[in-house]
């Protein structure tokens, strides 16, 4: 029973999406074909991003969910390289692909984070189809682009809530309207996702019914986003323990509700999000964080407090963390970030420190991180 | 003597007259673009990625000049309301979330004019004194 509980708790960890070679070929050939049809060369753009760093944790046997930080010193957890290709097919249609290589069990496989065609139905309506990112959190769409935010990594209490469920294959509609100096955007999406998850053994993960909505309001200084996502997923695999093989098959439904806001006034910035994940028969997890930052020309110190709490019929866990970070912008496209994080666990385990089968860790942990980030 | 007094008064009074030391900014598009005029709030919405389409629903591709250029500093101050550093970070969130096409960075007015004249979806800003008939001015901005 305990194994099953742990399995269910880790269902939403580390999704591995398939068909990288196919997607790579498709994404490379598609724009070339369009060139042949007369689309101007300048309508094809290539952008990219790269981050690398080192993390040191003062405890052994710790697994940070979704980041693979399971060694005392880790050079790979925050290393990611991405290439983005955007191509205007016509005044209304656009193709976009983002191909990313990041550490997965010490291997860097290039995979498509997204791959879609969009069609602008009118000034206000856009339709997208293909592989898309789930617009759950404030920084969901750019979570791999370290240069686009100020933390070394977005607060893990909240950003591990989805446990890597970041993409889907399907459709979305985006309605946007400008009111004075503010914009309001509403996005509906529906699709499915298939892949593998690493639970200590490889298990197949699939969700045929995934749908959601996000609403955002943004001005020069303020961004508010509310989102809701629901899906039904199945996990299937074989767990081997001392020559005993256990077939695992679990079907469950889950929902995410997230509310976040970011506000900037002069050199001060505040960003906060709160989210809840509810799983059928498995209880719920609530997580939130608050970050305050101040900009001193190229230097930006920031302070973050994050916490989470899981309640289920089997057990409850909670934990929190404090972190102090500094971001230094070398120029418009490159930065260095450092961070010291102090995390404390209450009542056992915490999403911050993972829900892996490796659970024999201390109740307190200090983590030091440094990353270099650039975009091009 | 009277003539000398008048000349002196003119020269003296000129010390208190504020003369424009920097030229106006012209916002330009391709001559085939259907847009005829554009307000400063519209330009602010465009450079802050709240609007990404011209009136005929064609996509807007932004251009900008080096942040050290005087024309860029004035444009960002008068129109955009963000520094180059802030704007680039903001644009990065939009580009890498698939919400905008990457803006084109150009070195000077002549290159902006050349690029705009070759791109019907482009928009850019130049010193008004650089304006030629190769492009169409849709807004003139002055302090």
Give a quick precis of the structure.
By secondary structure, chain A is mostly beta strands. Chain A has helices spanning 2-9, 20-36, 156-159, and strands at residues 15-17, 44-57, 73-74, 80-88, 93-104, 107-120, 125-133, 167-179, 182-198, 202-218, 222-241, 244-265, 268-279, 283-294, 299-311, 316-329, 334-346, 364-375.
Task: Chart the SSEs and their pairings.
The complex is a heterodimer of chains A (376) and B (143).
Chain A: H1 2-9, E1 15-17, H2 20-36, E2 44-57, E3 73-74, E4 80-88, E5 93-104, E6 107-120, E7 125-133, H3 156-159, E8 167-179, E9 182-198, E10 202-218, E11 222-241, E12 244-265, E13 268-279, E14 283-294, E15 299-311, E16 316-329, E17 334-346, E18 364-375
Antiparallel strand pairs in A: 1-9, 2-3, 2-4, 2-18, 4-5, 5-6, 6-7, 7-8, 8-9, 9-10, 10-11, 11-12, 12-13, 13-14, 14-15, 15-16, 16-17, 17-18
Chain B: H1 2-14, E1 25-30, H2 40-47, E2 61-65, H3 70-80, H4 84-95, E3 104-106, H5 109-118, E4 122-127, E5 135-141
Parallel strand pairs in B: 2-3, 2-4
Antiparallel strand pairs in B: 1-4, 1-5
What is the CATH class of chain B? Alpha Beta
CATH superfamily of chain A: Porin
Which percent range fits the helix content of chain A?
A: under 10%
Order of helices and strands of chain A: HEHEEEEEEHEEEEEEEEEEE
The average pLDDT of chain A is: 79
In terms of DSSP E residues, the strand content of chain B is: 15-25%
Structural class of chain B: alpha/beta
Please compute the radius of gyration of chain A using only Cα atoms.
21 Å
Largest sheet of chain A: 16 strands, antiparallel, barrel
Task: State the end-to-end distance of chain B.
Answer: 40 Å
| Count of separate DSSP helical elements of chain A | 3
What do we call the CATH homologous superfamily of chain B? Periplasmic binding protein-like II
Number of strands of chain B: 5
Q: What is the CATH architecture assignment of chain B? A: 3-Layer(aba) Sandwich
The name of the CATH topology of chain A is Porin
List unreliable stretches of 5+ residues of chain B: 14-21
CATH 2nd-level architecture of chain A: Beta Barrel
Helicity level of chain B, as a percent range? 25-40%
């Amino acid at each position: 029973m305990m194994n099953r509980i742990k399995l269910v708790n880790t269902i939403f960890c580390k999704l591995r999406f398939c068909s990288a070679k196919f997607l790579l070929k498709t994404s490379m050939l598609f724009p070339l074909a369009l060139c042949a049809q007369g689309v101007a060369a300048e309508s094809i753009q290539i952008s990219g991003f790269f981050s690398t760093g080192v993390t040191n944790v003062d405890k052994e046997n710790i697994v940070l969910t979704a980041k693979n930080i399971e060694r005392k010193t880790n050079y790979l957890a925050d290393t990611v390289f991405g290439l983005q290709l955007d191509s205007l097919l016509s005044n209304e249609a656009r193709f976009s692909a983002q191909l990313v290589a990041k550490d997965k069990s010490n291997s860097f496989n290039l995979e498509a984070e997204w791959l879609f065609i969009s069609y602008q139905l009118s000034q206000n309506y856009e339709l997208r189809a293909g592989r898309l990112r789930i617009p759950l959190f404030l920084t969901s769409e750019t979570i791999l682009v370290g240069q686009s935010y100020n933390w070394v990594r977005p607060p893990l209490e909240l950003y591990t809530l989805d446990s890597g469920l970041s993409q889907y294959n399907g459709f979305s509609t985006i309605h946007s309207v400008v009111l004075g100096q503010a914009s309001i955007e509403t996005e509906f999406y529906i699709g499915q996702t298939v892949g593998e998850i690493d639970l200590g053994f490889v298990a197949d993960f699939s969700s045929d019914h995934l749908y959601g909505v996000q609403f955002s309001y943004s001005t020069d200084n303020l961004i508010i986003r509310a989102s809701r996502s629901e899906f039904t997923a199945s996990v299937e695999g074989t767990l081997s323990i001392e020559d005993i093989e256990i077939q695992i098959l679990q079907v469950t439904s889950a929902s995410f509700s997230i509310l976040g806001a970011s506000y900037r006034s002069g050199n001060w910035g505040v960003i906060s999000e709160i989210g809840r994940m509810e799983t059928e028969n498995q209880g719920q997890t609530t997580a939130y964080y608050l970050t305050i930052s101040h900009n001193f020309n190229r230097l930006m110190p920031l302070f973050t407090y994050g916490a989470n709490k899981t309640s289920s019929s089997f057990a409850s866990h909670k934990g929190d963390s404090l972190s102090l970070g500094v971001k230094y912008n070398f120029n418009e496209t490159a930065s260095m970030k450092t961070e010291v994080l102090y995390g404390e666990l209450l009542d056992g385990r915490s999403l911050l420190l993972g829900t892996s089968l490796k659970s024999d860790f201390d109740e307190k942990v200090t983590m030091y991180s440094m990353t270099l980030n650039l975009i091009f | 003597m009277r003539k000398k007094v008048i000349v002196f008064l003119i020269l003296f009074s000129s010390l208190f007259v504020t003369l424009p030391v920097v030229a106006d900014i012209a916002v330009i598009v391709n001559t085939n673009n259907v847009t005829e005029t554009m307000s400063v709030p519209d330009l602010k919405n465009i450079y802050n990625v709240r609007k990404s389409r011209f009136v005929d629903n064609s996509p807007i591709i932004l251009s900008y000049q080096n942040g050290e250029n005087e024309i860029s500093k004035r444009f960002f101050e008068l129109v955009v309301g963000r520094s180059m550093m802030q704007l680039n970070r903001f644009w990065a969130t939009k580009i890498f979330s698939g919400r905008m096409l990457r803006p084109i960075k150009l070195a000077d007015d002549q290159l902006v004019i050349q690029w705009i004249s070759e791109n019907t979806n482009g928009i850019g800003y130049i010193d008004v004194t650089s304006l030629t008939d190769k492009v169409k001015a849709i807004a003139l901005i002055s302090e």
